[in-house]
Design goal:
Layout (H helix, E strand, L loop, with lengths): L2 E5 L8 H11 L4 E5 L9 E6 L8 H4 L2 E8 L7 E2 L2 H7 L4 E8 L9 E8 L6 H22 L16 E2 L19 H6 L7 E5 L2 E5 L12
Parallel strand pairs: 1-2, 1-3, 3-4, 5-8
Antiparallel strand pairs: 4-6, 6-7, 9-10
């Protein structure tokens, strides 16, 4: 039976229940473990997947697996770093690219196994974006397990732009009350109201904002 391991650093991350559901569906086909740290991994296995993993995984760990792969939501080599799809939607992107790549000591530089383009509606909110992204992640995970012997990994072309995104902090969810809502809509719609809520401060008080859809308008597309 194929041995598969996942590292998801934060069990409160919205992708965690998606992984749990998939594992339940596959438990008769594969020997699967889901852990939050490399120190909890099995001694050896066939596939290691890093999904929303904030830990730097050393080559001594990846060497214990036939394939060590990372999911990263950008069109590598452009968009290395942290939370790339969030930054890109904030900057007005109408699609994101999900990349499955090999884990290397240098972050986000491994050979690319496969990619998938994900269309993002101008009205998609954070949970809808997550739903599309996580579905694509499962798709690439399944593809790599079932078609690994047909995939030809591609070395990243570093002659292309190699922009790095910084790690997002709660402060990056701050709204500017002197600016229009229209100008800040992309920021507001990607803020997770539970983990990184949008907020503003007024008269010495901090307030959080939560965006929800309540219906349709005639010009919604």
């Amino acid at each position: 039976m194929i041995k598969i391991s996942f590292i998801c650093s934060d069990f409160s991350h919205p992708v965690y229940p998606v992984l749990v559901d998939w594992i339940k569906q596959q438990h008769q086909r594969y020997d699967i473990q889901l852990v939050e740290s490399a120190k909890l991994l099995r001694e050896q296995g066939d596939f290691l997947f890093l999904v929303s993993c904030s830990e730097l995984i050393s080559s001594s760990v990846t060497a214990r697996f036939s394939h060590a792969l990372l999911l990263h939501a950008s069109d590598l080599p452009n968009g290395r770093g942290w939370s790339p799809h969030i930054w890109e939607v904030i900057n007005g992107a109408n699609f994101i690219t999900l990349t499955l790549l090999e884990v290397e000591d240098s972050v986000d530089t491994g050979r690319i196994w496969c990619q998938k383009r994900i269309e993002i509606s101008r009205n998609d909110l954070y949970d809808e974006i997550n739903q599309k992204l996580f579905a694509a992640e499962i798709e690439l995970i399944e593809k790599s397990i079932t078609q690994w012997d047909e995939i030809i990994p591609q070395v990243q072309d570093d002659s292309k732009s190699t922009h790095y995104y910084k790690k997002r902090t709660p402060e990056d969810s701050r709204m500017d009350i002197s600016d229009s809502l229209e100008n800040q809509f992309n920021l507001l719609r990607v803020c997770d109201p539970d983990r990184f809520p949008a907020f503003f401060e007024y008269n010495g008080q901090r307030y959080t904002l939560k965006l929800e859809k309540v219906g349709f308008t005639d010009n919604e597309q």
